[in-house]
From TrEMBL:
Record GO terms (molecular function): 2 iron, 2 sulfur cluster binding; indole-3-acetaldehyde oxidase activity; metal ion binding
GO biological process: abscisic acid biosynthetic process; auxin biosynthetic process
Listed name of the protein: indole-3-acetaldehyde oxidase
Cofactor(s) in the UniProt record: FAD; [2Fe-2S] cluster; Mo-molybdopterin
Amino acid sequence: MDLEFAINGERFNINSIDPSTTLLEFLRFNTPFKSVKLACGEGGCGACMVLLSKYDPELEKVKEFSINSCLTLLCSINGCSITTSEGLGNTKKGFHPIHKRFAGFHASQCGFCTPGMCISLYSALANAAGYNSSSKSNELTVSEAEKCVVGNLCRCTGYRPIVDVCKSFASDVDIEDLGFNSFWKKGENKEVMLENLPPYNPKDHLVTFPEFLKKNKKKVVYNGLDHSRYRWTTPFSIDELHNSIKSSNSGDSLKLVVGNTGTGYYKDEERFDRYIDISQIPEMSMIKKDEKGIEIGAAVTISNVIDALMEESKSFYVFKKMAAHMEKIGNRSIRNSGSIGGNLVMAQSRKFPSDITTLLLAADASVYMLNGKKTEKVRLWEFLELPSISDSRLVLLKVEIPLWTAPSGDDTELLFQSYRASPRSIGNALPYVNAAFFAVVSRQELSRSGVMVDKCLLAFGSYGGDHSIRATEVENFLTGKLLSYSVLYEAVGLLKGIIVPGKETTHAEYRKSLAVGFLFEFFYPLIENSHRICSLDPEKSLPFLSSSQQVLESNEFHPIGEAVIKVGAALQASGEAVFVDDIPTLPDCLHGAFIYSTEPLAKIKNISFSENVTPTGVFAVLTFKDIPKQGQNIGSKTLFGPGPLFADELTIYAGQRIALVVADTQKHADKAAKLAVVEYDKQNLEEPILTVEDAVKRSSFFEVHPMFYPEPVGDVLKGMQEAELKIHSAELRLKSQYFFYMEPQTALALPDEDNSVKVFSSSQAPEYVHSVIATCLGIQEHSVRVITRRVGGGFGGKAVKSMPVATACALGAYKLQRPVKMYLNRKTDMIMAGGRHPMKITYNVGFRSDGKVMALEVTMLIDAGIEPDVSPIMPRNIMGPLRKYDWGALSFDVKVCKTNLLSRTAMRAPGEVQGSYIAESIIENVASSLQMDVDAVRKINLHTYESLGKFYKHIAGDHGEYTLPLLWDKLEISSKFKERVEMVKEFNMCNVWRKKGISRVPIIHQVMHRPTPGKVSILSDGSVVVEVGGIEIGQGLWTKVQQMVAYGLGMVKCKESEELIKRIRVVQNDTLGLIQGGFTAGSTTSESSCEAVRLCCVILVERLKPTMEKSGSMTWNTLIQQAYAQAVNLSASTLYKPEYSSMEYLNYGVGVSEAKVDLVTGRTEILRSDIIYDCGKSLNPAVDLGQIEGAFVQGIGFFMMEEYTTDEKGLVVQQGTWDYHIPTVDSIPKQFNVEILNTGHHKNRVLSSKASGEPPLLLAASVHCATRAAIREARKQSLSWNCNDGNRDESGMDFELPVPATMPVVKSLCGLYSVEKYLYNVTHFKNV
């Protein structure tokens, strides 16, 4: 039969298709539905999420759940219905309440991730409504709502408003707890709030399963697809499966399929001869429970396994514990598709770090395998030791978990506990180590005080071995023993010899320490509490998320100052907002992929393909030799010079573009690029420069113009002489950070008449893209047109780094005379992005005994990479925020190093975040050396207005503009800082294995306006079209511009002018329509664009005045009609040029964060963050609030989570969502409070407004400093433990906490051997 399914209610019949085609590929290239985005291709981000509906004809029920379309094979959805965000609602049939609430809660910024978020929320609502058998009620709870987007990544919002949207649908929500929104005003009663919330009714707003599929479902169930047309077989019994395997030729490659989620991790490029869908075999998809235990078919999805294990029953205690752990595996959509059997086979055959194998080992599970026609049962540990079953024709049929029940008697207890240390607490990240422990323990009858271990099963996994293991030596040692500290100490020693990570395993010692810690966590409470198992240092858990926002709206410049909903927010939520890759592909369109260098310095001898066979679909391979003779090999440019598009005969860094493969599809282009073979010659070449130290030795630096190199402040020599104490040659290093914009780099180029090209580019700098393309092709700029409508996140990464992508497409289109589109896969994007600048800092600081700093000398080595990019501005950017404290005197030596590494570029707050943090690190060091409270040292070094002028000169502004002291004091009160400091001290005294820290951090951030163009045109019907040089990248630029135009044109004071905002549309950036657009960067482009259009409105109002005065009072439409009749020019354009006196200004903010560190795992939990930020008079407080929260959370990623590293050749190590961890909804502060201080002191600003895009990112240093404080307490405790057991931990009070402060870093500073030290001490000295 044919492959048949529905998408958004529309029938699709597919006669024949490549079985490797994913649902995402089909949706994007064969349907008009574009809400489903490709952001990672791994199932790790949620941007591709859709709703899958399956109909069961026997039960006459529909089951709905979310899946990742990037992993789901199209043939596997035969007979199913797919719903995308457009299918929930759209502009034509009306938006769904989910879309409306996303808009009204200001929960969409760039909008690229929003459709996937909507589907995740909808799926949770559908489950709660009883569509799925697992539902226990028909209403969503707050707890469920908060977790429904755990599998979705967002780089813009900081998640808080998204969680509020989800919670707004919960039946048990207190509506007053929901955050700032456009549905109600603060102070309105609950009834009004509920009335104004877009109503949701499951009967009206849940999608229905198409009737035509219900009629055909029985055919699907009993027939399956025609193998000859699809190379896809669906057996319906074990015999049919056996026959299918047997009938295939011995040389044929087979792929057994359920959810295909494994390809997200392993990214199989192999083209299989045959696909066998095993999901319809009853024996492999059943769940059977009896008094012996539970049998689970290998094809049962992990979600269904969880549901089965979770069923209420006292006898199923172990099962429920296992289910709770499984909920942290992957994300919900992965669990909805991935099967338990697939997980086990990956663990057995490909060393996948599986949680499930660890859980099953601890439960002593067995598996059944099909070997020919025979069924064999083996214990799970035996199964894991077998040769890879993927290389054989063995098939895993089912899993059997025995039922463990507590022995009779009051003195005996059955215990089961599992553990997981992962970069993210509730899933969507692989663990460093997992463990599961089963034990039967009994109290001694005589003393009734000791606990005997009667039986135990101890399983460990993900530590870097081949697979999960049972620690049988430790089990045997503990069995029959009375638990004591000395026994546990010996057990730990045995375990350390068993847990042996492989040679390539990262953080090997950390992983061993985790295994030890987990064993300790399990047994320690039994020693302390006689018999009851409990957690270490139990504490009342906080609610998942809570928040407050204090925002002041203003109508002084109506509608400026009001929380107007972001332009296109609902459109973004439904997925109808068009990004570059959403532009319909033309029939003759080609696709490009880069071949990049893997050597840092080498001659390129030859480029070919594997086995000298041109891969399928390849049309051409373009190199620097294909650049037109009249053109130049240029791929980017900045004020500081150009960068090449391709390497020539010499590649000068790993990751450099060598060639562009052009093929008929993006899939073929990407595959061909991977098959490329580049021959290198490294003879007679000097060694590459791969470190800043090497750059210094070889004097390899970029020149820094004096205008970007600040002057020193004061007399450092004198200050050092006056200092009572000094710290000499202190050193710290800061690493890089990747942008992780949700939309990867992308461009589409179309050849046009007269040798011209039109390019659609996802860029923050279309003007520069335009110029680079013209120079590369050797044509005049009037023959190039670059169009940018919106960008799916930028953060600086879509500025310079977008240029070579667009230029390569333009070169392909120009040379081949066909459209060329390129959409970088995430791995290539990460390799080429560059990211934030790493640097090495050395300093000398002199200070008084009261903590007042007298002088600071700083030396910096900045790794700029191979090209200048914008790196020469870094000294200026770094030294701005670093001067936030009164250092007395300040001198510095900053060198911008040229290395054979990928060029670094501007990333949100480039240099500023490093400079601000360096200042905090110095203050922390001073306080530590004095053994003073660090907050007191910060306070004594805050600027007075006089010292502010000394360090910042004219940029300091008027006295009234210096609001930092006000913010400092105000936040102390609102955050209850002093009271909480005392509470933290008390907590630390009472808890051994958890420590808290709290920190208050100020920021001063310098920004600068740049010339910006604007154009406002009034059309004949009275509607208004606006163009600006600034690009909408999610920061709300279009929204603020729209408000400003409404305010500016409203000055005509005619009837209906109050409603003007509804008549205004901001349109895409076109480099031939509006020139001199410059860069959208530096936080001020929104303000500058607003001022540009305000000036346009002033011109237009002046032109309209005579008509108004002549005709008297009239409506807006009448006024415009008369103006048209009188031939009044109703289009005005300007180039806003800021005056020198107001070009630069300072932004102020203060943040307080409280963090809790787990000494066993190194995990840091952000308990609370309070922010107060001076926005001047906010142009749109909703937009600014979103910018503040989003920037802060991105800062958390930099300081705490994100590792962006290179290997020994300089090639980026991280490849995607599996190993690069941006914050998720479970990473943000549990309590997140933000206050926007709306001050009117800034008359030289645009309507007294101030920037909000980048400065708040610096406040995330408060989280890092709070973590440092908690670690300090842990080290203080460790010093009090006398220990001579040979386990050495550096535990002095002087330490530097690296950035990022990941779990391994935190644990190593708290003590990798803290458990051993504790046990040794309590055994030998009994004084802990």
